[in-house]
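Q: My labmate handed me this sequence with no annotations at all. I'd like to see what the chain might look like in three dimensions before we decide whether it's worth expressing. Could you predict it?
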Amino acid sequence: MSPIRAALFDFGGVISSSPFDGFAAYERDHDLPEGFLRRLNATNHDTNAWARHERNELTFDEFCEAYEAEAREAGYEIDAREVLACLSGEIRTEMLEAIRRCRSRLKTALITNNVAAMSDGGTPMLSMVDGLFDVVIESSKTGLRKPDPRIYELACEQLGVPAHEIVFLDDLGINLKPAAQMGMTTIKVVDPDTALRDLEAAVGFPVR
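A: Here is what I predict for the chain of 208 residues:
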């Protein structure tokens, strides 16, 4: 088994609390069925408005119009701007510490499906992790989004590290599967404490 030379982190659901928590709160506040937004985003998952916006193929206004139309077709009214606001989660300080410790010994990268508003504008979310990563790969800037294998290939290329020497943390199994098939060590983040223990086992040093 090759030693790990790079650690790759997702943002939402790993470094920050899951956006699904925000989705659930929006659903409760607007009398939507439980899980409606997740199902909406999973329908035609590569060509729907959410996916196209994460690849920066739609302007903000185009996304809002298309996303609200998709929800309407599914039987409900939503405010796309309010749904996007749900993406702002709380930063997990223990995960930031783990990234700092990894960076002292390994190469580090962030790989995130996001929209342009998360990295542009007055208070970009990703500014919270400035200086922690050697490589930052955003779907809104590359035009690629997880789980497209090409985004993982891009990470390997920019890190200069082969897949089998990388550990990757994400909160979605669908995003981990192609990375694992490439040879990465993958960790699904459900409980942060468990994920950090798994990360320590993978890299061979304490991250807390």
